[in-house]
Specification:
- The structure holds three protein chains of three kinds.
- In chain A, about 70% of the residues lie in helices and about 5% in strands.
- By secondary structure, chain A is an all-alpha fold.
- In chain A, helix 1 packs parallel to helix 5 and helix 3 crosses helix 8.
- The longest helix of chain A is centred in the N-terminal third of the chain and has 31 residues.
- Chain B is mostly helical.
- Helix content of chain B is about 70%, strand content about 0%.
- In chain B, helix 1 runs parallel beside helix 7.
- By secondary structure, chain C is α/β, with parallel strands linked by helices.
- Chain C is built from ten helices and ten strands.
- Chain C is globular and about 50 Å long.
- The chains are: A mainly alpha, B mainly alpha, C alpha/beta.
- At the A-B interface, helix 3, helix 4, helix 9 and helix 11 of A face helix 4, helix 11 and helix 13 of B.
Chain lengths: ~300, ~325, ~250
């Protein structure tokens, strides 16, 4: 039970990071972006490549930050991957989504995102192969917190949780303390009014993709650190992340954070009552429950 | 020669079944603007429903009701409709992303349930032991397949005619009104949510019909048949053919299924053995590019939405 | 004659292509004056303001600000050039606090930001008291003042208000209109759309009458007070301007 809660919180930390970007995009660009989870894969693989590059260029950085399995090189790779993934999200928007948007076919954006998801996922598979990859070949030993009941925690897990919380807090500060943050919230609430108050809409959309892509990269890397990196990870993560945004209420950043943890916990606690094979269905059950009990989510507002 | 013809019959049967599914999706997306992200769940409900209701008793899972075939098929359609009704009831009042996400979720959960619940539908092994209707009279040979194809073709034509009339009817005009301007439709005193629900359920029943025929054709269904791939394929057919145009939907089904089959064959034949593992990935990249490319450069599809006959050529099935 | 700040000539615009709401509408707005636009429902008053603010594409015609062309410029750039627009409804960000609304509007103010904020808070004491509250909690009249304060935060040459008194109590409505007059007296150009015609005519300098997307008439505001022409246009009795427009 306690072990399930710990694992759930850990899962929640990367789901939340993924859901934040998704909820922002869904709110500001008004479409369910089915390719958002592919940004997680993109980030995970980008970090893999950057890690190898950094290690090759500066072997000194391959030292581990004990007790973590994380090396300095991978730490640097995480930052590089955030930038690269954010830029990729901007480029994808330029090449595809913006064109569809400017044709006025807002509903078609969903289709376009599904198509993009297929393209990105399978190109990753073609480049990196279908077999799983790991950031560190070493087996990370868990610290035993308690023998009865048996509770295991890996140092990496603690790092992932803390890093996720730090990122979320940083985003909170940006949104609640800076005029840049106000402009993001303003565009989400009323794009036309934001514009006549001097907000550059196109630039804000770029910022949203950068933030969403950056956080997605971290989420993907943390998923890779906790599990493994595979080309189809986006396919497995897309529903949990969507569930997190719906549980929290589409458009609410704080809702996405809470929703991510709820989905993570629910998935792990479900293991107590359901066979493991059913775990992929849990996010859908949560979506159903929220739609029945509180259709606009925990923090959401009704909006047409 | 007979080999080629029998392959063509096989191909045309599958394409016609898929065309029925595309018509169902066209009612939802093309005519009403409803995004169904879980086409395969409704298709699958039809297939599983038909096979479980109409099949012989199986050890370890539901089945053996031995219903007469038409009733079994109807049962499959009802299963699909029921699922659509529940999902629609919960999401159609909300902004459109909810339907997209919930239907996508249904497909994931449906496949997951079918894969794991052995007591329900045989789990990963799927549902076997279904005897195709009239098999004892007609045997398993070419004649049976030919007659089955003709039956499917008749059903396809019937569905097409039904939808053409529906779209031209006052109800069809209301659906387009809801799609174009929900407030205006509401001001006519019609509940947009109810109209959408009707269209969504009707479309899903047609998807269920296609699924039932698909299950019948192979006399077998397993979780491998209801992977998200099929959802993408059916969409690509609709988008390429022309959303909103029933002829376009049928045309798209044959075109994309032809292209998919041909590319799969070409890749398996000409790609080096060590790359065979990746031919699937390549096909997905292609289909993704087709969807995105069409939306960017020809969003109206090859046969755009019009109630008048298009100049671009007739869909093969009507010739 | 006062200095012309904004001039629109032959504006044709609408929400969707090929379906213009405005047909060849022209108007001038001068500094230090309140210019009023009136007309029956559906006349295109709000559409005209939105087109000037850059929120709708202008298919024909030219708009100039201080004799420089501004047709087709993005709304945020127009704000930076000195055009402020207070929409009729949804004119504040309900999810942000009052202070955050103001800070957002003050983003382009640079070094002057602090002094402008102080001036605005002094001018609107009711807002100063509630700085930390969410703007969604304000009353109708207070929202209108917050919206005006946000418009003023950009130190505009021209301020456009779309029915600022709509939905307010008579007292609050009068307060808002008097405030609009005050803004003009400080030297700004004020463009006002109002349904409250009599009250607005009393404080306006010049008035344009629109109907069916066209100019019908324009005259000094005091000439229209008590004139029956206005009522006739409202009731549709008077023949509308010919197809060529009044430009």
């Amino acid at each position: 039970m306690i072990q399930n809660v710990i694992d759930g919180v850990l899962t929640g930390s990367y789901l939340s990071l993924g859901a934040i970007g998704l909820t922002l995009v869904m709110h500001i660009l008004r479409f369910a972006n089915f390719s958002h989870a592919e940004l997680l894969s993109l980030g995970a693989y980008a970090a893999l490549v950057c890690d190898a590059l950094v290690t090759a260029l500066a072997p000194v950085l391959a030292i581990k930050l004990a007790p973590l399995s994380l090396t300095w090189a991978l730490g640097l790779a995480i930052v590089l991957s955030m930038v690269l993934t954010g830029l990729s999200a901007v480029v994808i928007d330029r090449l595809v989504f913006r064109r569809v948007r400017e044709r006025g076919a807002e509903l078609s954006m969903v289709f376009a995102s599904f198509g993009m998801a297929l393209v990105i996922r399978n190109i990753i598979g073609l480049i990196f192969g279908l077999s799983p990859k790991l950031y560190s070949q070493e087996i990370a030993f868990a610290t035993v917190l308690s023998f009865d009941p048996l509770i295991l925690v890996k140092p990496d897990q603690v790092f992932v949780l803390l890093a996720a919380l730090v990122l979320m807090f940083a985003l909170h500060l940006v949104l609640s303390r800076t005029t840049f943050g106000y402009s993001l919230r303003a565009v989400a609430e009323n794009p036309a009014l934001a514009q006549i108050n001097g907000v550059n809409l196109a630039r804000t959309i770029v910022a949203v993709w950068l933030i969403g892509g950056g956080l997605a990269a971290v989420a993907g890397i943390f998923y890779g650190m906790s599990h493994q990196i595979i080309p189809v990870m986006g396919r497995d993560l897309v529903l949990p992340i969507f569930a997190a945004t719906i549980v929290g209420g589409i458009g609410s950043v704080y809702g996405a954070v809470l929703g991510g943890f709820i989905v993570g916990l629910a998935g792990n606690l479900a293991l107590l009552v359901l066979p493991a094979g059913y775990t992929p269905s849990v996010p859908f059950l949560l979506i159903l429950a929220v739609l029945i009990l509180r259709p606009h989510g925990l923090f959401g507002e009704a909006r047409a | 020669m007979i080999g080629v013809i029998s392959y063509l019959v096989f191909f045309a049967t599958t394409a016609s079944i898929l065309a029925i599914a595309v018509l169902g999706l066209n009612l939802q997306w093309g005519n009403t603007g409803l995004f169904n992200g879980g086409v395969v769940a409704f298709f699958g409900a039809g297939a599983y429903g038909t096979l479980i209701l109409g099949g012989a008793a199986q050890a370890g899972h539901l089945g053996g009701y031995g219903l007469a075939y038409p009733l079994a098929l109807l049962g499959g359609m009802i299963a699909a409709g029921l699922m659509a009704w529940i999902v629609g009831l919960l999401t159609l009042r909300l902004r459109h992303d909810y339907l997209a996400i919930a239907t996508f979720g249904v497909a994931v959960a449906f496949e997951n349930l079918m894969r794991n619940a052995e007591w329900l539908a045989g789990g990963a092994k799927g549902v076997r032991g279904f005897e195709r209707p009239l098999r004892s009279a007609l045997g398993d040979g070419f004649i049976y397949n030919l007659l089955f194809f003709l039956a499917v073709l008749l059903i396809l034509i019937a569905v097409y005619l039904f939808l053409e009339r529906l779209v031209a009817s006052p109800f069809g005009r209301l659906l387009r009104a809801v799609r174009e301007d929900e407030e205006a439709a509401a001001s006519l005193g019609k509940s947009p949510a109810r109209l959408r629900l009707t269209a969504f359920v009707t479309g899903s029943v047609i998807l269920g019909l296609a699924g039932g025929l698909y299950g019948t054709f192979y006399a077998f269904v397993s979780p491998q048949d209801i992977l998200p791939t099929l959802t993408f394929q059916i969409w690509a057919m609709l988008i390429v053919g022309g959303a909103g145009n029933n002829r376009g939907a049928i045309f798209g089904a044959f075109l994309i299924w032809g292209a998919w089959t041909a590319s799969g064959w070409a890749l398996s034949r000409f790609a080096p053995v060590e790359a065979q593992l990746y031919t699937g990935s390549l096909q997905f990249v292609l289909i993704g590019c087709v969807i995105v490319g069409m939306l960017m450069w020809r969003p109206q599809g090859l046969l755009p939405e019009r109630l008048v006959v298009s100049q671009r050529g007739k869909p093969p099935s009507v010739q | 004659m006062a200095e012309t700040v904004l001039e629109a000539r032959g504006i044709t615009a609408g929400y969707v292509p090929d379906l213009p709401i405005l047909r060849s509408v022209s108007l001038k707005v001068a500094a230090g004056q309140v210019t009023l636009i009136v007309g029956p429902n559906g006349a295109g008053k709000s559409t005209l303001i939105k087109a000037i603010a850059g929120l709708l594409p202008v298919s024909e015609g030219r708009i100039t600000l201080d004799s420089r062309e501004i047709t087709g410029i993005r709304p945020d750039q127009l704000t930076a050039r000195g055009i402020a627009y207070v929409p009729q409804t949804d004119n504040i960000f309900r999810g942000l606090t009052i202070r955050q609304n103001l800070d957002l509007a003050l983003r382009g103010a640079g070094a002057e930001g602090t002094s402008r904020l102080e001036a605005l808070l002094a001018q609107f004491p009711a807002l100063a008291e509630k700085q930390r509250d969410r703007a969604g909690t304000l009353s109708g009249g207070q929202r209108q003042f917050l919206a005006v304060a946000m418009a003023l935060a950009t130190a505009p040459r021209l301020i456009m208000m779309d029915e600022p008194s709509a939905g307010l109590s008579p007292k609050a409505a009068e307060e808002v209109l008097i405030h609009a007059r005050g803004l003009a007296d400080e030297g700004r150009a004020v463009l006002l759309v109002e349904q409250n015609v009599k009250q607005a005519l009393r404080l306006a300098d010049h008035c344009y009458v629109l109907a069916e997307g066209r100019n019908q008439l324009d005259a000094p505001a005091r000439d229209l007070l008590g004139d029956t022409v206005l009522g006739e246009i409202y009731l549709g009795k008077r023949r509308l301007a010919p197809e060529s427009g009044a430009a």
